[in-house]
Specification:
seven-stranded antiparallel beta sheet; D-amino Acid Aminotransferase, Chain A, domain 1; five-stranded antiparallel beta sheet; 27% strand; alpha+beta; globular
Amino acid sequence: MIFFHTCSQDVTTDLILSKLSYRAESFRFNVDRWRDYAWEFGPGGWSCTAPGGETIDSSKMFCFHLRKPMFLDAIDVPAHGCLENWCRREILDLFKNLYFASHAAGIAALVTPDGDAWGKLRQMKLAERFFPVPEWHLFSGKRPAVPADGRWVVKSLTQTMIGEGKCFLVREVDLQTLDASYPWFIQKRIDGGEEVSAAFVNGRIWASSIPRDVLGSDDSRLETYRRNLKWTPCNLPDSECAAIRGFMAEAGLSFGRFDFIRKDGVLHFLEVNPNGQWAWLDEKDERGLISAVAEEILAVERRGRTLAAARG
């Protein structure tokens, strides 16, 4: 089947589908009508059901066509408009284009456009080849069939604010209280153990850990900054370093920060942020993490100067 990712008002997709209907099966996902669909993504694959009952799953999709996934109706914008919102989006888009152009010219340091493509869904599937990964599900429209006595946390796929000054943070939740008409990302909670965070800089790794009972919540970022908690530097065994390097090589990333939980000696993968916060792992640069990042940036700056000189 061909998966069309678009919106309900995309007439071009209507025309394309009229040409394909007798040659191939197609499934249309209109992002602006997402509440009309039900889906679930998990370790074993994914499935999505359309309002009319048509279903596509990971075993049936042989082509993905990106069309126009757009929300054409305004939301939370006053009748007189919101120029500040418009300005922010224009500026973000302008400098994102500059970033892409810089990468194409070979002068973007560490963070690459590929990082944006490695969202949690792709991360989970790739990580399963290198680490134990706690069971996870992405769903809407229906709850996944999971043990009722399990403990789960909910996460967000983005950093989009859900209100003024409010960001969706990791927290434990009773699955039965989740409204299935919303999209959810859940992951099995691992009790006890220690949090391990590792910064990866072009092949080099800096890791630190902290007991989970010290944190007091499931969002280590919140507790670290709110209570100024100090993490303990640690050395990962060669096998775990090799797994991290293998993951990053497969993802095509040269920079990122990993979140793990170590329980009974086993390192469980939670996620990697291709451009996450990392300085708190070595604030005083005692282990050379900040210096390493600075040197990588300077190396690109020198390369940029050389390229500019060669162009005359």
